[in-house]
Fold CheY-P phosphatase CheC.
Amino acid sequence: MDKQITSLHLDVLKEIGNIGAAHAATSLSMLLNKKIDMHVPKVEMVPFNDMMELVGGPENVVVGIYLRIEGDAKGSMFFILPVEQADRFIQRLIQDEAFSFSKMPVAEIGLSAMQEMGNILSGSYLSAFSDFTGLKIYPTVPGLSVDMFGAIISTGLIELSHVSDHVIVINTSILEEGIEPTESVKGHFFLLPEPSSFTAIFNALGVS
């Protein structure tokens, strides 16, 4: 299955990603009351081990949004942010510079803000995906976890590892107005479709 994923498939997924990012940027701009730019600089298919290294290794503590995808295409989806970048974003969102996901117990307002961000990002991406492919897909309510990356993603990997050793990575850059480009928030979407869903997805895209 992994060998069937070509650069054309990844280009199509990047285009869908940028459409989703544009929708998400509009929603986040309204939420933050300032202009937000989002784009997808790269989509790649990587082995599980390389995926772990993208976020600093399986023991690196990250903020993770995760959900199941149901409907015509099934699978799991994760949005992963380094803790310090998630802190910075949520501090601006709730206007509290003292907020941190590392301080226990984590303030409820920050968790709610991150959950809302997760809803916007995953909803925007999956909506673009559904519009583009014509597939009816339904995300579950996103869950939120602050934990080691290996622990957060293990559920999706266990399901997929029987049939594949690769995952689709959608790199995402979020830039707030007035912030230097070097300070942009860089997150990763990890898309783990079930094996049967790969065929449905790429047939729908016309690149079977």
Q: What stands out?
A: The first helix runs from residue 7 to 32. The domain at 2-204 is CATH 3.40.1550.10 (Chemotaxis protein chec). The chain has six helices and seven strands. The beta strands are 36-47, 61-71, 75-82, 137-139, 143-148, 166-176, 185-193.
